[in-house]
Amino acid sequence: YSDIMIEREILMQKYIHLVQILETEKIAANQLRTQLEDQDTEIERLKAEIVVLNKAKERMLPYQNNQEEEDPDIKKIKKVQSFMRGWLCRRKWKIIVQDYICSPHAESMRKRNQIVFNMVEAETEYVHQLSILVNCFLRPLRMAASSKKPPISHDDVSSIFLNR
């Protein structure tokens, strides 16, 4: 009985810790949501500013030649430049991602997620064991206590399962 009480206390502490983590994650999610909304507003403002600047630029520039009238060598140079810019961007992005994957923050996030998943798994197992306890022991003992010749009384069942 005391072992069960100790295990119950440990599981309750784990549950409280999990609830605290959940609350922290909810707060962080709300903060991120607010940041995203602020960034969306900023993006819309910047888009509007770009449109205004492009219109002003169009008014200031003299007539430009169509791309069809461009020199073929210039087209080839632009293609090569575009390819190189894309390659450099992808390479820089790959380096940024690799640096993050190796960062202490990413490692702590992996550890945190592993702990949370282990806690969820432990809680799932706990609930499964409780359902076995209720279905295989508590209910049959209560039914037996309600029979004509009970092998155990209702008070004994209640004291065994902490229902005082």
Description:
Residues 111-164 form the DH domain. InterPro entries: DBL_dom_sf, DH_dom. This is Ras-specific guanine nucleotide-releasing factor 2. Residues 19-56 form a coiled coil. 84% of the residues lie in helices and 0% in strands. It is an all-alpha fold and 164 residues long. The protein has helices at residues 2-60, 72-101, 104-145, 154-160.
Please summarize what this structure is.
84% of the residues lie in helices and 0% in strands. The protein is mainly alpha-helical. The model has no long low-confidence stretch (mean pLDDT 89).
* Envelope shape: elongated
* Intertermini distance: 15 Å
Helical content class = over 70%
What structural class do the secondary elements suggest? mainly alpha
Q: Radius of gyration, rounded? A: 33 Å
Number of helices: 4
The overall pLDDT, averaged over residues, is: 89
- What string, H for helix and E for strand, traces the elements in order? HHHH
Return residue spans where pLDDT drops below 50 for at least 5 consecutive residues. Answer: none
Number of strands: 0
Strand content of the residues, in percent? under 5%
Coiled coil: 19-56
Protein name: Ras-specific guanine nucleotide-releasing factor 2
Organism: Goodea atripinnis
Keywords: Coiled coil
What would the keywords be for this entry?
164 residues; mainly alpha; 4 helices; DH_dom; coiled coil
Topology:
Layout: H1 2-60, H2 72-101, H3 104-145, H4 154-160
